[in-house]
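Page 42, continued from yesterday. The earlier attempt failed because a stray header line got pasted into the input along with the sequence. Redoing it now with the clean sequence only.
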Amino acid sequence: MAVEYQRPDWFTQHVFNPLVAGLTRLGISVAGSRVLEVKGRKSGQPRRTPVNLLVLDGQRYLVAPRGNTQWVRNLRASGTGRLLLGRRADVFTATEVPLDDAVPILRAYLKKWKWEVGQFFGGVGPEAPDEKLREIAAEHPVFKVS
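This time it went through. Structure tokens are written below.
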């Protein structure tokens, strides 16, 4: 389980994430973006955050590039959520992927979104050997959504 959480900088928190979330709410997916809605583990209130939905070999995954974030903790607690795109809401159940199984998923995620999230992976990119990806897997939780 990841113990660190990389907080978003001012630009990400106040400009980039609200812009992506706003476009996604309008039904415009930015490179696979969705708005993740998960029930807060303490408040019980719905919490929303923009995420990148990865589709790999017909399966859908969420990767936490910033580590053990609030949405990760909430998803672990509830096991369910909704992925929003415009007016469409897909209800899902989440299963955390074991570390060894996360390696190909992290590689595919970095291939698609390194331009956006690469800074949170400590210089590890999609071309890194499996051993290196396995080393960082615990810092970036992966969930299969179905």
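Notes: The chain has one domain: 10-145.
Reminder to self: strip header lines before submitting.
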